[in-house]
Amino acid sequence: MSSYYQPEIETMPRDGLQALQLERLKALVAYVYERIPFYREAFDAAGVKPSDINALDDLSKLPFTAKQDLRDAYPFKMFAVGRDDVVRIHASSGTTGNATVVGYTQNDLKNWGDCFGRFLVAAGATTESVVQVAYGYGLFTGGLGAHQGAEAVGCTVVPMSSGNTKRQVQFMKDFDTDILCCTPSYALLIADTALEEGFTPATDFKISAAVLGAEPCSEGMRQEIQTKLGLKMLDIYGLSEVMGPGVACECGCQKGLHVCEDHFIVEIVDPDTLEPVPDGTWGEAVFTTLTKECSPLIRYRTRDITRIIEGTCECGRSFRRIDRITGRTDDMLIIRGVNVFPSQIEEVITKFDEITAQYQIVLSSKGPLDHVELLVETVPEYPFDEVRRLEALRKRLAAELKSNLQVSIEVRIVEPKTIVRSEGKAKRILDLRERG
Amino acid sequence: MISQLTVFIENQKGHLAKVCRTVADANINMRALFLADTEDFGIARIFCDRPADAALALKDAGYRAKVIDVLGVRVPDREGGLAELLELLDKHGVNVEYGYCFSLERDYAIDVLKIDDESVEATLIEAGYSLVSDEELYQA
Q: Which of A19, A43, A97, A372 is the most buried (most CB within 10 A)?
C-alpha cells in the first residue's frame, strides 16, 4: 500500500538494522570521546570507555545528555567539527538562559532531508507533488526541515513560511498544493480560513496529505483537520537538539511514529529512575544520534513522554514506532506551535509593579485550539477601586505578553486566594487541555 | 470626604456571599453596597460601620480590600437634583470616575462620587451643598 523513499533502509530486516546501528554506535562513541570534551569528561566520570561498547545493550552504560548540558555548551562547545565544516546553525528558543545551538554539516543536512523525505513519500509525495511549507522559516527547524525533505524527494516546494493565512489558502488552491507541512494548529487555522473565504477545501482543493508536527496533536484535532481539508494527516516528530522534524513520523497507517533507526537509537526510560522501561510502557524518550557529524548526542533526554509500540507495522517499514507524544516532563509549553516557558511569562509579569509574582497559567481547549489564560493578582497597595484602571492594566499586560511571546494570552485579574500558594515548587500551570 | 470600603471580587458564583460573611463575622454592619461588575471581576463598594476594621478583616481572609475617600453630597430629593450637582462639577473641570446614590433620610439622597479633585469640596459648600462626613454617615 505504501511506497518508500529509501526502500532498502526503510524495510531493512531487524537484524541487519541492528548490526548497522551497532557499527554506527561504536563509531559514534569513539568520535564524541575524541572530539567533544564534554563527552570525554562524562564518559570518564562514568568510568566507561568507547571500547566498552560492544553491543547495543551497552548503550545503557553511557551517561545521559540533558538540555542544560546543551545550554551550558553555548554557543559551540558541543560541536564536533571545525567551523569550515558547519554549513547551517539552528537554535531553539532560549529566552530563559542560553539558546540551544545545533550545527549541521552538509551530510547532516542531507540525512535530515532524507529523513523528512521518507515521510513525505509515505504521505504520497512524488516528484510531481507540490509541497506547501507553512512552518516558520528561521532558527526554528520546522520550515527548513520540511523544505529540505521536499527538495530531497524532488517535489515542488512552496516556501510560504507561517502567517498570511489568506494567501496560504489562495496559493493552496491556485498552485494545486498536494501536501501541507506546518503545525497542526496552523493547519486548522488555514482550513478555517479557507472555509470562511467560501471555499470547500475538502472537495475544491487538490490537497491530499499533510505532514504536521512541532506540537502535540490530539486525535480529535487530527480528525477535524482531515475532514475540513479532505486529506490524510501524518504526525511528524523531531526536536532541534536531535535534528529537527523527521526523527520519527507516522506512515499512512497512522498507527504510531516510525523512528528513523538508521540515524537514531530511541530508548524509553523512567524519568525518575532513568532505567529503561519495557516496550509498551510510557516513559521519557531518549535519543542517541548515530550519524550526526556536527552536533552528535549520546542519550539525549527529550522530556517528551511516549512509549514503544510493539509489533510490526502493516506498511512494511521495519523501523520501530513510538506513540504520539502525550506531554513533556518539564514546563515548556507549546501553545499553537509557539514554545513558551512559564519563566518568559514571569519575566513579563515582573515588569509590572502593579502585579504580584503570584500567577497561574491555565491551558484549556476552546474547540480544537489551545486557550491560554493567565491569572494574576494586583499588589496589595494597588488602587483597584476603578474598573477602568483595572481593565487598562489587564489590556496592557496582555499586549506586553503578546509582543514578547507571540501568542495571545487572556489575562484575568483574580482574588489573591484564587492562586494557590505552594511551599515547594509552585504549580504554575494548570493544563486542562483535552488529550484525544 | 467619606470612607468607602472597596473590595475586589471575582465575578463568580458565591464570592459576594463570602465577602459579606467575612464582614458579618467581624461584627460589622453594612448599610449600603454597590457593585460595579465586568465579565471577569466586580468591585464592591460598601458603606459599613468601621470600614477600616472591615478592610483588615477582609485582607486577613485573603481579599484585596481598601478604604477609599469619596465625596458624599446631600442632594435634594427632587427632579434635577443630581443633574445640577454634576453640572457644577463639570463646570469646575472635575472628573467623576464613578458615582451612585443612596438614601438614608426622607428629604434628600446622598450622592457618592469618586472624583479626581478633592478641592472642589469648598466650591460645593459655597454653592450651598451639604457634604456628608464619616461621623454623620456611620452614626446615622
A: A372
CB proximity list for A275: less than 8 A, separation 6 or greater: A269
The DSSP output letter for A136 is P
Q: How far is B137 from chain A (nearest CA, A)?
A: 21
Q: Are strands A355-366 and A369-378 parallel, antiparallel or unpaired?
A: antiparallel
Q: Is the pLDDT at A209 greater than 60, yes or no? A: yes
pLDDT of residue A365: 79
Q: Closest partner residue to A384 among B8, B15, B114, by Cβ?
A: B8
Q: Which of the residues B41, B68, B98 would you substitute to probe the A interface, choosing the one with the greatest number of A C-beta atoms within 10 Å?
A: B41
Local structure of residue A380 (DSSP, 8 states): T
**For residue A211, is pLDDT > 80?**
yes
Distant-in-sequence, close-in-space partners of A240: CB < 8 Å, separation ≥ 6: A90, A91, A92, A100, A102, A140, A141
pLDDT at A311 over 90: yes
> Under an 8 A CB cutoff, do B97 and A415 touch?
no
Q: Where are the domains of chain B?
A: 2-68, 69-139
CATH topology of domain B69-139: VC0802-like (3.30.2130)
Domain total in chain A: 2
Contact assignment for B63 to A417 by CB distance below 8 Å: yes
Pick from B45, B63, B98: CB nearest A415: B63
Contact B112, B100 (CB under 8 A): yes
> What CATH number does the domain containing A416 carry?
3.30.300.30
CB contact under 8 A, A415 and B59: no
How far separated are the first and last CA of chain A, in Å rounded?
Answer: 27
Residue predicted with more confidence, A340 or A330: A340
Q: Is the dihedral of CA A103, A109, A115, A116 positive or negative?
A: positive
Superfamily of domain B2-68: VC0802-like (3.30.2130.10)
Assign A426 a pLDDT band (cuts: 50, 70, 90).
Answer: low
Put simply, the answer to whether B8 touches A415 (Cβ < 8 Å) is: yes
Q: Say yes or no to pLDDT of A329 above 90.
A: no
Interface predicted TM-score (ipTM) = 0.77
Which amino acid does the sequence have at B116?
A: D
> What does the pLDDT look like over B81-115, one tens digit per residue?
889 999 999 999 999 989 988 877 767 888 899 98
Distance of alpha carbon A170 from alpha carbon A70, whole angstroms: 41
Q: Report, in angstroms and rounded to the nearest whole number, the Rg of chain A calculated over CA atoms.
A: 23
Question: Which residues of chain A make contact with B10, given a CB cutoff of 8 A?
Answer: 414-415, 418
Report CB contact under 8 Å: B43, A385. Answer: yes
Query: What gap in Å lies between CA A128 and CA A303, rounded to an integer?
Result: 38
The verdict on residue A55 lying in a domain is no
Do A414 and B10 count as a contact with CB atoms less than 8 A apart? yes
Task: Give me the CATH number covering residue A122.
Answer: 3.40.50.12780
Q: How many CA atoms, within 13 angstroms, populate the side-chain half-sphere of residue B84? A: 13
